[in-house]
Amino acid sequence: MESANYFEVAIFIYLLSTILYIAHFIFQRERIPRIALLFVSLGFIAHTLGLIHRSIEASHAPFANLYESMVFFSWCILLVHYFIIYKYKIRVLSAFVTPLAFLAIGAASVLPMDYKKIEPLVPALQSYWLSIHVSVCFLSYAAFAIAFATALMFIIQEKRIKYKKIDNFYFKLPSLEILDEVSYRSIAIGFPLLTLGIITGAIWAQNAWGRYWGWDPKETWSLITWIVYALYLHIRLQSGWRRKKAAILSIIGFTMVLFTYFGVSFLLSGLHSY
Amino acid sequence: MWKIINKLRAIKLTIVLMIVIILLSIIGTLIPQNAGKWKYVELFGHHGYALIKYGQLQDVYHSWWYLGILCLLSLNVLSCMIYKTKIRNKEKFKILSNFKLYQEYIFDKKVENIESKIKETLTNFKYTVNCKNEEGFWSIYAKKGSLNRIGYYLTHVSLLLILLGGLVGSLWGYKSYLKISVGEATDIPKSNFKVRADDFQIKYYPNSSNVLSYESKLTVIEKGEEKLTKLVRVNHPLRYKGFDFYQNSYGTSKLWIKVTDKKGKGNRYLVDVGSKIKLGKNDLYLKVEQFLPDLIIKGTEIYSKTQNLNNPAAKIGIYRNKKDLIKSFWLFYKYPDYHRNITWNKEDLSFRLAGMKPYTELQIAKDRGLYLVYGGFLFLMIGITFSLFIPFRKIYASIRRDEKGTKIEVAGKSLNRKREMEDEFALIVEEIVGNN
To answer: Are residue A116 and residue A141 in the same domain, yes or no?
Structure first.
């Protein structure tokens, strides 16, 4: 079996789980989330096997081009989400994160064949920094994706409470305090990782091109993203902004992440391959 | 001075500066940077160009705007640190009932030993406890997670270090590009050594046209002595005496041209691309007008398809008395039979492109600020980790005794992870007053 087959299995399972989660919010069936999470985990195993397979096929770390990176991004989102639901016991997070993971790997799978080809590494990418820099960056993106999902849950829950709309969502979502805290904690995980990602990128650039910073669009946008989250932390810790305002800032931060990842790759030209 | 610091430390200023930096940086990625005038005129028109020029938007990141904002941010960060140090050194008495986490207990009787109980409890929760006793009034101040505070300083000092390193690098740093033909040595500017290129090679993946590596074998020569030899490739620069040499580019610098006369006697000439040489005893001169490593012809256009030596071709000009062009023609390395002849003054010469001599292009950099920046990176990582993962918590307590009884007040504060702090505070309070 090729790595792409494993990924197809994972995509199918993530889609199924997403549908199950939607059903969960429409019908009151308490067993659905358990089954859905079990499915997600099966998909995650297939996904992991696929990544291992891909690195063997390509004989390099499985994130050397856009396609591989999107598959890896999806995997990182689920990995960080497992950590969060283990730590905060909010299983319902899966319902919001699984669609994100599905979108990332699904979008990767519909990329044109040219993007999926295994290419040998160009000289600049032949470095152990590739593994460190990329994996750290994507773990940070994933943590921000979780922060985004919880911020979204916060906004939904807040609307329910504000307009006294007591529906399925209200009962299934955790309290505002927990959502606020988890969103903050995810950013508190993502921010050091993003910092490390930028730093390792800078050291790598110094080794490869003789400058640690060159205002390449990807570099600049990662700095912009970094400043947005630094702003979030300052506003939250110093000015005491919490809850809704913080949730909105977290959503803005994640749009910056998405632009740094996709926007820069497709709209602006630079030195990064994705 | 204090007044200025107090103004500069404002968090509002920090936020405004961050937003301005974000906006300027975005502008810098939307407007092409360091392009020619006509590019801007084409994109934004003459008025747009005037505006861009006025706002230094063609090079945002090196504009006075950007530098000014960064300076202001540094001052902001610096004053913040000074301010915090100063207020921390004189912890004022706090009105405990104003805290969000606050509990008070009033007992009718005299409660003994409560001080030691509080101390013990707080110590069990890993707090560092300070006590003060002023005429029957006990005040207790306990804190934990001081590494968080250290993290705060490390993070902000590191930002200053990185900015300083960047400044040092751009003021006293040095960067240039150097072409060295294989087999030759070149003096490195602003140094007392030479670098010789022993070899340059492009290696490919097995059975593929994908490049595996571009590598130059370089030897450092100082005072006539060979100091070290290293294979330099992308990601593997050569470091010597603060200079870094990076593999940057490559090309062909010189060509071997073989000239054969009608008796079959051949001569090989090594000619620089673009320069002229005299041919033997004649008044003829040969010039390499142009060299294309991978010539292809499309319609009337002749150009190089890639940088690789797939179809090396040289355009040769033959001149009389240096300036009168007699004839010009192309020679192809891969097609040695396709040689060209000229007949001149009873001489019959035939020309062949017999070989190419590569050059390697190196980027030389000397960045005096690099270690400041790397130090900043290290501090930044440690600082951020400390300040985000180690919560700083404070507990205040006071005990007041008079004839009527005992009043105990406990208050707590944490900058982050407030929910955890609430739980911890509840446990502490329970333990302190539990048995009474």
So the answer is: no
